[in-house]
């Protein structure tokens, strides 16, 4: 069993859907689980629909119409593949919008945004069957079972594994083809509520399937030739890494590398399943292999840039130490507000964090901290992470920019600097 994941960029229009079909024909007689994301920027569109629904904005009807037109145009270009599925799903969306949104906005988000993956798989599964690439469609919500947390649900592994194994059992009457299509990013809570696994979570979904099915390998099909040591948008002299270790992959993903979702690696590492990152534009290219390596070329310095950062320094007004109980309260507040710390550092009476610049969340945070703490902050910053750093590399990347905070370990340095 192989597990493939195709992201939104790989299924953004009719030609790209046809390309998915061509790639699948390169693996005749293989059993494949294919995990599909929403098409193109559909998730962004559905986020706008959700916001309009919550705010009872009349613009929601136009947004839904545009969403339907986008998918219908792709369907028409593919000989009406998925036409009936699109109609059913769009009817569901309109029925949701006729009711009052849930009191929890995150529940509203999961209810609507999860429809994107259902739309894409309805079209692609039907297109493949119409063109002789026989497959069955599996609703991921029936097998990916999670906690009640919306927008970042936690997998309940025992229940999920048993359901996936049962769904792919050859004795299952629904298993009548070597290829199974399913959705990434979505699932159901243990009580039956639709949930999502976090933005860009389809990589993680694919890893969950690979783990449960003891897959021989997993392939993420991207619009790049593999994993590079830096983002080509920021650096001109990037190098493709032919192979990297699980450890390096999870470190790079955690620090912000956009090629792989941070949660993807653990389920694969636990079963020693190799992960390939390959180009859907050049599927014969070897791409990058991520596996259990200990000595390989990943010693090449890798750079990750996170723009739009804020450095926040928190100091107790009574000049008391920033001890465990104080940090516990600060962490609890950050967790409650959904603020992720990208870098942190503390001294005797100060605690500094580097976080994404979200004006609304920052305002709430500063208000909550203002009674007990003095809060200072700097905006318009970048967080630069260098894995396998050298002084020469640091000097080259930073240049003459001011460094606001620096933190080093044996293999990684992180620097908060002014934006270019």
How would you describe this protein?
- The chain is globular.
- A hairpin with a 4-residue loop joins strand 15 and strand 16.
- The chain has two domains: 2-215, Acetylglutamate kinase-like (Carbamate kinase, 3-Layer(aba) Sandwich); 302-418, VC0802-like.
- The strands form four sheets. An eight-stranded mixed beta sheet has the order 3-5-2-1-8-12-13-11, with helices on both faces. Strands 15-16-14-17-19-18 form a six-stranded antiparallel beta sheet, with helices on one face. Strands 4-6-7 form a three-stranded mixed beta sheet.
- The longest helix is centred in the N-terminal third of the chain and has 18 residues, at 60-77.
- Helix content is 37%, strand content 25%.
- The protein is an alpha/beta fold and 420 residues long.
- It has 13 helices and 19 strands.
- The protein has helices spanning 14-25, 42-54, 60-77, 83-97, 105-113, 115-130, 157-168, 202-213, 246-254, 265-271, 324-337, 359-369, 391-398; strands at residues 2-6, 32-36, 135-138, 145-146, 179-183, 186-189, 194-196, 217-222, 227-228, 240-241, 243-245, 275-279, 288-291, 302-316, 341-346, 351-356, 373-387, 403-408, 412-418.
Question: How is the topology of this model organized?
Answer:
Elements: E1 2-6, H1 14-25, E2 32-36, H2 42-54, H3 60-77, H4 83-97, H5 105-113, H6 115-130, E3 135-138, E4 145-146, H7 157-168, E5 179-183, E6 186-189, E7 194-196, H8 202-213, E8 217-222, E9 227-228, E10 240-241, E11 243-245, H9 246-254, H10 265-271, E12 275-279, E13 288-291, E14 302-316, H11 324-337, E15 341-346, E16 351-356, H12 359-369, E17 373-387, H13 391-398, E18 403-408, E19 412-418
Parallel strand pairs: 1-2, 1-8, 2-5, 3-5, 4-6, 8-12, 11-13
Antiparallel strand pairs: 6-7, 9-10, 12-13, 14-16, 14-17, 15-16, 17-19, 18-19
Helix pairs in contact: 2-3, 2-5, 3-4, 4-6, 7-8, 8-10, 11-12
């Amino acid at each position: 069993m192989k597990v493939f994941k195709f992201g939104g960029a790989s299924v953004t229009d009719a030609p790209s859907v046809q390309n998915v079909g061509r790639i699948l024909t390169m693996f005749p007689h293989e059993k494949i689980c294919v995990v599909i994301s929403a098409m193109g920027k559909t998730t962004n569109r559905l986020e706008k629909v959700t916001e309009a629904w919550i705010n009872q904005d009349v613009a929601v009807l136009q947004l839904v119409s545009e969403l339907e037109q986008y998918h219908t145009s792709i369907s028409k270009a593919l000989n009406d593949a998925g036409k009936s599925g699109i109609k059913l799903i769009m009817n569901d969306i309109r029925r949701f919008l006729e009711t009052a949104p849930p009191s929890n906005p995150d529940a509203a988000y999961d209810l609507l945004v999860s429809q994107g993956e259902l739309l894409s798989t309805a079209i692609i599964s039907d297109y493949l069957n119409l063109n002789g690439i026989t497959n069955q469609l599996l609703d991921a919500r029936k097998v990916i079972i999670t906690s009640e947390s919306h927008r970042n649900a936690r997998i309940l592994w025992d229940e999920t594994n048993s359901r996936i194994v049962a769904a792919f059992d050859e004795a299952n009457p629904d298993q009548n083809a070597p290829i199974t299509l399913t959705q990434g990013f979505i699932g159901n809570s243990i009580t039956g509520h639709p949930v999502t696994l976090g933005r860009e979570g389809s990589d993680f979904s694919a890893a969950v399937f690979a783990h449960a099915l003891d897959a021989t390998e997993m392939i993420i099909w991207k619009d790049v030739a593999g994993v590079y040591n830096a983002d080509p948008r920021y650096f001109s002299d990037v190098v493709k890494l032919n192979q990297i270790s699980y450890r390096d992959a999870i470190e790079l993903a955690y620090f912000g590398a956009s090629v792989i979702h941070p949660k993807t690696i653990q389920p694969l590492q636990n079963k020693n399943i190799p992960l390939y990152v390959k180009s859907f534009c050049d599927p014969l290219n070897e791409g990058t292999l991520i596996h259990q390596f200990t000595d390989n070329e990943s010693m090449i310095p890798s750079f990750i840039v996170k723009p739009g950062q804020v450095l926040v320094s928190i100091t107790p007004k009574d000049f008391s130490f920033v001890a465990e109980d104080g940090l516990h309260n600060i962490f609890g507040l950050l967790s409650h507000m959904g603020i992720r710390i990208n870098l942190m550092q503390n001294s005797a009476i100060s605690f500094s964090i580097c976080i994404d610049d979200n004006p609304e969340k920052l305002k709430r945070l500063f208000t909550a901290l203002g009674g007990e703490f003095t809060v200072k902050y700097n905006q318009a910053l970048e967080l630069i992470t260098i894995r396998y750093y050298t002084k020469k590399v640091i000097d080259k990347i930073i240049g003459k920019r001011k460094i606001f905070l620096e933190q080093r370990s044996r293999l990684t340095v992180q620097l908060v600097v002014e934006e270019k």
